[in-house]
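Lab notebook, bench 4. The sequencing result for the construct came back, and we need a structural model before the next group meeting so we can plan mutations. Quick request posted to the team channel:

Model the 3D structure of this chain.
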Amino acid sequence: MGKQVPLESSVVATIIKKLNAVPGCRVKKFHGSAFGMMELDIYGCFNGRAVFIEVKRLGGKATERQEREIEKWRAVGALTGCATTPQEALSIINQRNCDEDI
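Done. Here's the predicted structure in C-alpha cell form:
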C-alpha cells in the first residue's frame, strides 16, 4: 500500500509550526468565511515584511485566481507564493526583492 498524501490542513499546520520557529517570523492560518474566498491560507510577517502563502497538498498548485492574488501581494512588496512543503515555505520567506532600492 502506497504512502498517503497528507491533507492540506496537516500541511498548513506543519508549515505554520516551522515558520513560527524562525526568528523574526510570525504567521497564522487565515480562517475563511463566505466573505474571504480570495484570501490565501497563511498570513503574517517576517522581519517587517508581510507574508502571504497559499498551501496545497503535494502535487497541487494554486488556481489562476490564487496566482493573481499572489502576484498582487508580491507587487506591493509582500513575501508570497504557493507551498506544498515547509521547505518551500521557508524559501518563500527568504526570497529577496530585486526592487528594494527603488
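The chain has one domain: 8-93.
Will bring this to the meeting.
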